[in-house]
Design goal:
It contains seven helices and 14 strands. By secondary structure, the protein is α+β, with helices and mostly antiparallel strands. The protein starts with a strand and ends with a strand.
Length: 267
Amino acid sequence: MKITTWNINSVRLRIDQVTRFLCEEKPDVLCLQEIKCVEDSFPTKAFHQAGYKHLAISGQAGYHGVAIASRLPLKKIEKRDFCGKGDARHIAASVEGGIRIHNFYIPAGGDEPDPKKNEKFAHKLDFLDELTAWFSELGPRSKNIIVGDFNVAPCEHDVWSHKQLLKVVSHTPIEVEKLGQVQAAHKWVDVARELVPEPEKLFTWWSYRARDWRASNRGRRLDHIWVSPALKKAALGGGRKAYSIHDDVRGWERPSDHAPVSVTLKL
């Protein structure tokens, strides 16, 4: 089962890129973040024509929004609200084999890494705390996968310069600590770093501000795929080739600033 996560930064604006990716890479499940539209405006027809007839959507006008598109039937669709904000930042669905996929768009946190001065950053930390509390309730045999734009680059080599980004939102010590608590709450397996250990650099996001993003390569690994301990063998069984950052997509016309990320489970 091939699962892809991608912050698309407006699904309607980039539907041609999405359908091209689906045609070329053929994931079984595609999880999108920042769709930036309500459910009724989602380009359902294009997904159906591409062979993805099963959709789970949590939309919001102009902001946020997450969706799951699948070749496989989706069951037990769930939308969870965090921090009482009413934002469309989570959607979950179950697929064959009892596997439950959670798709997240964790708050970016603004520019100032001080929760007392920056409400957006405080919201991000609170969101991560709620995740930790929720995941601590999951049973050890659960078959869960969490994917999405976590907006945190946790490892030293998940950013282009660890020292220069320590005070930049997405790589500050408090964010890394909070995300570590989320991971520990269910002993989540970070598929990328299990298959591609440090010190190799891994990036999934490159700023629009760079004139030549590939040449400067000032990226960050913000997009993640984690699996429950019960799925560790399936996620790692295919070896390094089972994990891909499709950075060529970042170079397509009118791209998202995030590249799609995939893992193929050996079930």
